[in-house]
Amino acid sequence: MTVSAVIYGVGAMGGEVASLLIERGVPVVGAIARSPQKVGRDLGDVIGLGRDTGVIVSDDADTVLQESGADIAILTTNSYLADHAPFIERCVRAGLNVITIAEEALHPWRTSPGEAARLDALAREHGVSIYGGGHEDAFWIGLGAQLAGAAHRVDSIRWESTWNPEAAGPELMSSLGIGDPASGESVSVVWRENDPRPPFGLPALDALAEHLGLPDAPRTVTTEQIAAAQPLRSSALGREIAVGEVVGVRDIIRRDPLTEDEPLLEFTVTGRLNPDQHSSGETWEIEGIPSMRMQTSFSKGHFQVTAQIANRLEDVVAARPGWVRHSRMPAIGYPSA
Ligand SMILES: NC(=O)c1ccc[n+]([C@@H]2O[C@H](COP(=O)([O-])OP(=O)(O)OC[C@H]3O[C@@H](n4cnc5c(N)ncnc54)[C@H](OP(=O)(O)O)[C@@H]3O)[C@@H](O)[C@H]2O)c1
């Protein structure tokens, strides 16, 4: 199947996804941006491809979506549904499938249930699919689900991710509060249903719980800001972060068992700016029969994000209409042909 795509949001991630698709020969037939510095230029020029693509970056989203003839829109604009639900809706109404890297979109059913249900129904009506993908697809959910699938009994799953937002764009920096004055507090809350701006790891924990067939249960989120102990130059922010300003955030997200048969789930996510080091990766630990441990690490770059978008396009287009849950998708695969 050849799938053609529109890039919606030509920022740090959108630009990298576009380059990767073009390199693979996947038709990129439209590009939507907002800033006057990008609109009206050739996509190849905007993303530094070194050649023109014939696609002119536009801020007229409806026209691009309706006239491009694309199968799927790739949304790389925001983290939360509250901000980008209108973009999803616009794509669906134009008859395009949607894959979005918004962190909440992995599993919005408990954080924005009303909006998720509305968009799910709209997608069914228009015969298209919506899916939240990106780094989390394999590394925060899929690998853990597979590992648990190899166990006779699971007592607990503890997994940890550290990642470096340095090469990301301003949207991600603001989602994490990087550069804001640090409060120095560690805040622990039971996450309320319907609170629409969850920590990045919460939808992933909810998605893994669904894989394991666990019912909805309270999740406790403990958030610590990491303050700069010395000045740190951030190219992503375009300025120096002063001592006492936020350079990172650590969230510990925990779902305690409701019965003695259920496993404990605990996910620790640390996003910390680190301009000199690439220190991203995950550790998964399962206690049970047998107990297991798995570690992932990456060479520099965002290919583990962008390749997972490219490798999911056909799955999303082929999926049943509606908002597709991670547990209903096949494990992500590498399309070698
Ligand atoms: N799931 C994952 O694996 C993953 C990985 C990385 C990032 N993310 C998330 O993806 C989002 C984007 O990250 P990023 O690093 O690429 O940020 P970014 O560089 O700030 O890119 C966001 C882009 O969205 C565009 N945009 C915003 N509103 C728009 C609108 N109304 N119309 C058209 N374009 C619009 C902006 O356009 P202009 O430049 O024209 O203003 C900007 O280029 C963030 O929320 C981040 O948290 C997820």
Summarize the helices and strands and which ones pair or pack:
Elements: E1 5-8, H1 12-24, E2 28-32, H2 43-46, H3 61-67, E3 72-75, H4 81-93, E4 97-100, H5 113-126, E5 129-132, H6 135-148, E6 153-163, H7 170-176, E7 186-190, H8 201-211, E8 219-227, E9 232-234, E10 239-241, E11 246-255, E12 264-272, E13 281-289, E14 292-297, H9 303-310, H10 313-318, E15 322-323
Parallel strand pairs: 1-2, 1-3, 3-4, 4-5, 5-15, 6-12
Antiparallel strand pairs: 6-13, 7-8, 8-11, 9-10, 11-12, 13-14
The percent of residues in helical segments reads 25-40%
Question: How many DSSP E strands?
Answer: 15
Outline the low-pLDDT stretches. none
Biggest sheet: strand arrangement: 7-8-11-12-6-13-14
> N- to C-terminal separation?
11 Å
In round numbers, the mean pLDDT is 93
Report the portion of residues in β strands.
25-35%
The backbone outline, from C-alpha atoms, is globular
How many structural domains in the coordinates?
2
Small-molecule components bound: NADP nicotinamide-adenine-dinucleotide phosphate
Order of helices and strands: EHEHHEHEHEHEHEHEEEEEEEHHE
The helix-and-strand class reads alpha/beta
Radius of gyration: 20 Å
Number of helices: 10
**Main beta-sheet annotation:** 7 strands, mixed
